[in-house]
Design a protein that fits this description.
Length: 271
């Protein structure tokens, strides 16, 4: 596993996300994208395949977009709870009707849950293994854990290398399918490992810019733009072809992200 060293203290503690990171997470462009019906389509499809109902904890939930969309699509089927270290982000999630709990997941009492999710979270953590251990401890026997992280063997990484915008200070860990599976250890069994998502705009922009720094505002605006493309009637022909490209890259392990579905093994002692 690749990892950052040294790591600034405010990234270790999470203080960055409680203070300086809010200009991104609470920007109008980011919020509009996170609450769009198309935003978490792949995550929801994967989640529903394995978990049809129950008590769900979203760790690092930020402004609550996943849990909001889960409830909008499947009302009354899940008991939801989001947790994060960012107070402003949780306040927004709460304002949109998502139950939240602020605090350090490693020490905050919670559970038991049928499912725990880490959508684009482990790469931000100083101790990702400790968070997976904690997830194991708050899951019911046979409970599920869903993890999504950037794929360090993606087409984007192979083409761009360090010019790729997701090689940046907030990401403390970088995973391949092999290192992600090894991180899981013996606590869980792996039900599914796949690569998913593909954003050609990112590749084009980062190639053209030569790896120039991308501001939080630019990241939010790109997310808003790609979300808009997914909903534009004029781009319907491209949307028909896009899943075929993404599926092909996914089959080769070259899509942008890795998603892994884990089941709690019950033969181990509690942490």
């Amino acid at each position: 596993m690749l990892y950052a060293n040294p790591v600034p203290g405010d990234f270790v503690s999470g203080q960055y996300y409680d203070e300086r990171g809010t200009d991104y997470y609470l920007s109008p462009a980011k919020l509009e994208s996170d609450y769009a019906p198309v935003r978490f389509q792949r995550e929801l499809r994967l989640f529903r395949k394995f978990c049809r109902s129950g008590k769900v904890l979203d760790v690092g939930c930020s402004t609550g977009g996943f849990l909001y969309n889960l409830n909008e699509r499947f009302p009354a089927q899940y008991e939801r709870l989001g947790t994060d270290v960012s107070g402003p982000a949780l306040e927004y999630a709460s304002s949109r009707g998502t139950p939240v709990l602020r605090g350090d997941f490693l020490t905050t009492p919670a559970g038991p849950f049928d499912a725990v999710t880490f959508w684009a979270v482990l790469e931000h953590l100083f101790e990702p293994r400790a968070f997976l251990e904690r997830a194991w401890s708050v899951l019911k026997p046979g409970g599920l854990c869903f993890v999504l992280v950037p794929n360090m063997k993606s087409l984007a990484w192979r083409l761009l290398g360090v010019r790729y915008r997701y090689i940046y200070p907030q990401h403390l860990n970088y995973f391949t399918g092999r290192t992600l599976t090894r991180l899981v250890g013996e606590r869980f069994s792996v039900l599914k490992l796949r690569s998913m998502h593909f954003n050609p705009l990112v590749i084009w922009q980062d190639w053209r810019s030569g790896g120039a720094d991308v501001s939080n505002r630019e990241r939010a605006e790109l997310l808003k733009r790609t979300t808009g493309y997914k909903r534009s009637p004029g781009l319907a022909p491209l949307r028909l072809a896009y899943p075929l490209v993404e599926s092909g890259l996914g089959a080769l392990g070259l899509a942008d992200n890795l998603a892994i579905v884990l089941r709690k093994e019950t033969g181990n002692k509690e942490v």
